Amino acid sequence: MSAPMPSKLAYVPFVSVANMMRLINHIGLTEMLTGIATYIEDDFRRWELFDKAPRVASHSDVGVIELMPTSDGQVYGFKYVNGHPQNTVEGLQTVTAFGLLANVQTGYPVLLSEMTLLTALRTAATSALVAKYLALAGADTMALIGNGAQSEFQATAFRAICGITKLRLYDIDPAATQKVLRNLSDQGFELTACSSAQEAIEGAQIITTCTADKQYATILTDNMVGAGVHINAIGGDCPGKTELHKDILSRADVFVEYPPQTRIEGEIQQMPADFRVTEMWEVITGKAKGRRDERQITLFDGVGFATEDFSALRYLRDQLETTGLYDALDMIADPDDPRDLFGMVRRAGGESM
Ligand SMILES: NC(=O)c1ccc[n+]([C@@H]2O[C@H](COP(=O)([O-])OP(=O)(O)OC[C@H]3O[C@@H](n4cnc5c(N)ncnc54)[C@H](O)[C@@H]3O)[C@@H](O)[C@H]2O)c1
């Protein structure tokens, strides 16, 4: 007797790295970033529906591995993600990820995807979406400090969503800045390579810090931040891993995703537990004010929250039918008789078990 075919429900759509790259090239990076940003914005509007908890982190001397679950009651999702700042020295990525969506009614997975690329897209989409609400209107210049894996995605999202056309680049490793210059040379930006963070921030209305270092780093000091600036700080996202001098936090209005997680992982881990922050979902739904005036310093203390990954996976799922850019993964054991898991294995081995 031949082995039974897996049931239809056994197959879970799987987006591999190869298919994710095809999808980005097929849809276009700008289009995909703005699409994901729309889904993230929609889910911020539905904030109160979601299960929310700080992500579950497993720390080691060299990095962190985290699980990020959430659900809107209909669909459940989680992401596995790591952060290992020393990895690039070994030729490895600092951040890698994959994630899943499942049907809450049955618990069956409905999508499995690579998320190393998708994380870069959702992080950039979130940053630019937040800046749309907080940065000075008409901002056209951004300092991009930390020119690693996230940086070009950040630049592209800020061009698409906020109108940034001038980039001032700085990295402690000039090779990283050269890589960004190469990658973005034909993307319509005015690019300036800078030899210090201080030089990079000159004339910038938006400052993005996306450096990776497992320590309390000081990428920006208080005297570097002038009136009206919006800071998009995304590299500080772990206990003991920050980018800004704490004096900046006292002077700025700080906006966060989910305070219980950000107080553990974000820049505000340097501040008292009752330090005042505004939640982005409140700004997006109009419950709280974003930018009040032209002199206010706004700071997005972005650590990356589970709902943003959920939104990105939701966006991805909606592209599958029209593009066909996925494989069907035989992932769920689903016997014809749901209680006969044992028999299914026996039949697969020709009853030899
Ligand atoms: N907030 C979020 O949602 C989110 C999402 C993804 C990644 N991240 C974080 O963003 C950071 C960047 O990620 P990546 O994948 O681009 O990492 P990466 O290792 O590819 O790049 C980091 C870059 O920062 C540079 N750098 C380190 N210290 C510096 C300093 N003092 N001044 C200037 N440059 C410095 C490094 O030379 C490197 O080029 C990481 O800390 C990562 O954990 C945050």
TrEMBL record:
<dbReference type="InterPro" id="IPR023401">
    <property type="entry name" value="ODC_N"/>
</dbReference>
<dbReference type="InterPro" id="IPR036291">
    <property type="entry name" value="NAD(P)-bd_dom_sf"/>
</dbReference>
<dbReference type="InterPro" id="IPR003462">
    <property type="entry name" value="ODC_Mu_crystall"/>
</dbReference>
<comment type="similarity">
    <text>Belongs to the ornithine cyclodeaminase/mu-crystallin family.</text>
</comment>
<protein>
    <submittedName>
        <fullName>Ornithine cyclodeaminase</fullName>
    </submittedName>
</protein>
<dbReference type="Pfam" id="PF02423">
    <property type="entry name" value="OCD_Mu_crystall"/>
</dbReference>
